[in-house]
UniProtKB/TrEMBL annotation:
One Pfam family from the record: Mutator
Polar residues compositional bias, start-end: 1-10
Name of the featured protein: Mutator-like transposase domain-containing protein
Signal peptide range: none
PANTHER family per UniProt: CCHC-TYPE DOMAIN-CONTAINING PROTEIN, KERATIN, ULTRA HIGH-SULFUR MATRIX PROTEIN-LIKE
Amino acid sequence: MVRTKPSTTRGAPKSTKKRTDQVKSQWKAKKSAQSASVLTDVTECVPVLGSSASATFSASIPSTENILGTKTRSEFKKESYERFVSGGVDTKSSAATETLVKTQRGVVDFAEVDSMVASLCCPQCKNKCLSLCTDSRPTSGLAVFAQVNCSSCEEPVYEQYLATKFKSKTKVFDMNRQAVYSSLACGLGATTFRNFCENMDLAGLHHKTFHTHASQLFTQLEGFRKHVFSETVAYVREVHARYCGTTLGVDDTLNIIVSYDGTWLTRGHSSHIGVGCAVDLLTGLCVDAHVMCTYCQVCESTGQKLFQEKPEEYAAWLVDHLDKCEVNYKGSSGMMEVEAARVIWRRSVNTNKLRYTTLLSDGDSKTFTELNDIKPYGEDIHIDKEECVNHVSKRLGTALRNMVTDCRKRGVTLGGRGRGQLTGNAIRKLQIYYNRAIRSNKDVCSMKKAIMASLYHCFSTDENPQHELCPAGESSWCFFQEALAKHQVPGPHKHLIHTPLNEEKLAAHLLPIYERLSEEHLLSRCVSGKTQNANECLHSLIWSRCAKDHFASRSRVEFAVLTAIREFNFGPAAAADSAQFFGFQTGHHMKRLGAARMHKRVRNSLKAVRDKQSKRRDKVRAAKSKRLEELVQLEGGPAYAAGMF
């Protein structure tokens, strides 16, 4: 008998129940509206016919202000959210419901089962003399062999493994293979999984058995890749065509804007594995990814040993091993991002019927230069570049910190104690001002004026106010211009300048950096105000499935990349679809927990984007940074720094 939770309104008057239901419905409607607002803003598309044999369509993405409040945007956000929560499947359809069965799997205490069996009658002698005997055999892993014996009959009444075979195979249990799959999907390796089983008092799997199961899963990665990206690309093409107001044929090629960035398995510049990911800016979905690898463990161990001991057999072994070799790139780790971009751009038309004609990058590699050199779409199609606003603003902070370090080496102190010094907290604030100046303006001249205004505002004093470049009006962020607009006397700079800078000491060092980072060719690429936050989020999701501080093969990283992209594109609810592709039976617990994880993620996102919370975080971060600087100064300066002592 299943016990249900008693209703909180039991015994209450009908009017109270009615009011409670109304409050609940209003609360649910409010939460649904808030959740829909979390998703990325969607922009309108403008169709442009290309010069190729097949029709080509290009999607242009204007600023958010141009489309704010339009019907198109709200409809797309609602549709995307519903698709994201459902994992890309229509949960209301009968087909989706049929794939979910009631899970028949759980952790069982066999001592309790034994007492239950003892209360049953033997089917032969009809006596209550049954006992349960379980055996976790070394070759069965997590599968348990159970035997029910009768002390009167002295014969086993029942004996069988309490686990199903994987795809009707004789030696592979479904729960063992799925346990390995779940461990890999959660970022656990053979050792960590064995430690978990040890603390849970489970039989576990031998590390060789674990890797054997993993190798069998990795053989399906190519099919899983097609499964992930085919559905994603079809949805991207559908959305672009819908908001372009046109119809795309099967052979029509679509021009889109993508954000491309690379990430590496290990920190530093000596990683054996790198990943390049391309994310469509309109939908926010990853449309392609490629893993580069320079190391094969089999080549380094078996191959080297065979080459030294039996060189006559090495050639035959190498020919047989080439199809299984993990190495697909030879070169430096810094060029992995560029090489992955070449692969992705060259196959975009044949594989996805897409052209990535505009590239949003961080400027950390020469990907843009290389792509225009190889011309993947022919001589007539040029690839344009846009800059990530966050990465451009980071260049200012990096330049200022490097300048302070170089001056310290020459005996010039710029970041000491006292008012007007270029401290770490001041550099952080200047970087924020620079970022805001770019985001709040939509043309190059206004950006440059706002950037220089943020600097001269900090240089200003009562004796020499320099607020000519600050925006005028009563709504100006500059206290001086606000006071003038209200016909009031401006307050003292000592109390109203939050980041004071000593002009005599710092102007000669800061002005060249600001002039370099406010050049027209750089700011013109920041007009759209876009960022690579989606790529950074995807990278975090990838490495949560494959730890950076442990060795991993290319196949292991590809598994992490594809499962992360599947969840990134369609949410945690897509975990059931991924498990079904690899041949595992999914139940209602997987769907329920995935939906709960998705709703918790949306709820946390709503909390993070609130203005009040955002301002509070900035204040807490600034106060913490200030306390640390004061503590360092009280201790007589830095006590730890690379090569400083």
